Amino acid sequence: MARPLEFWFEFASTYSYLAAMRVQDACAARGVPLVWRPFLLGPVFAAQGLTDSPFNLFPAKGAYMWRDLERECARLGLPLRRPSRFPRGSLLAARIACAHADAPWIGAFVRATYAANFAEDRDIDTDDVIASLLGNIGQDPAPILALAATPAAKSALRAQTETARARGIFGAPSFIVGNELFWGHDRMSQAIDWAAGA
């Protein structure tokens, strides 16, 4: 019997975009239960002594990443429009995804948010943009945005980010099956194989 695959992702993460757009269908094809685990990379990087994305701190690494992302998006048939701000704030979207991780619409929301950030260059940390994304997937934005502003929703995301650190996650996307950690979108198939028992 397949084991659950935990998908740990950050909405500002370029490589998480590649994984997020494919992971639900890939898991479904193998009969692997998918668990959505949004978290924030900022505190994880801060614990490593970093004050910004490594792709900004190290220009050669950043230049490589953007070119690599162009190649990977072309290979996978995903649209790409380089965000005018990177990394873009994603606190609101992450709180919503954390609070509604079990909702039947969570996959559609995650994909819509990534598309807004990396294909449309929209500001995903504003109520207006998030409300439009929620409306487009058939959800009433008002109660969802209201919940995201509560102390409980804020605490839940902080706790999930701390859990990510405690479980050894140092970047996104990451996949966990039991106690096995797989890092990077190029390890997604391997993680699904592991979950499926292959």
Draw up the topology in text.
Layout: E1 5-9, H1 14-20, H2 23-30, E2 34-38, H3 41-47, H4 54-57, H5 59-76, H6 91-99, H7 106-118, H8 127-136, H9 141-148, H10 151-166, E3 174-177, E4 180-183, H11 188-196
Parallel strand pairs: 1-2
Antiparallel strand pairs: 1-3, 3-4
Helix pairs in contact: 2-11, 6-9, 6-10, 7-8
Catalytic activity: 2-hydroxychromene-2-carboxylate = (3E)-4-(2-hydroxyphenyl)-2-oxobut-3-enoate
Enzyme class: isomerase
Active site: 13 (nucleophile)
What does this structure look like?
- With 198 residues, the chain is of the alpha+beta class.
- The chain contains eleven helices and four strands, in the order βααβααααααααββα.
- It has a single domain (5-196), classed as 3-Layer(aba) Sandwich (Glutaredoxin).
- It has helices at residues 14-20, 23-30, 41-47, 54-57, 59-76, 91-99, 106-118, 127-136, 141-148, 151-166, 188-196; strands at 5-9, 34-38, 174-177, 180-183.
- It has a four-stranded mixed sheet with strand order 2-1-3-4, sandwiched between helices.
- α6 (91-99) crosses α9 (141-148).
- The longest helix has 18 residues, at 59-76.
- The protein starts with a strand and ends with a helix.
- The relative contact order is 0.20.
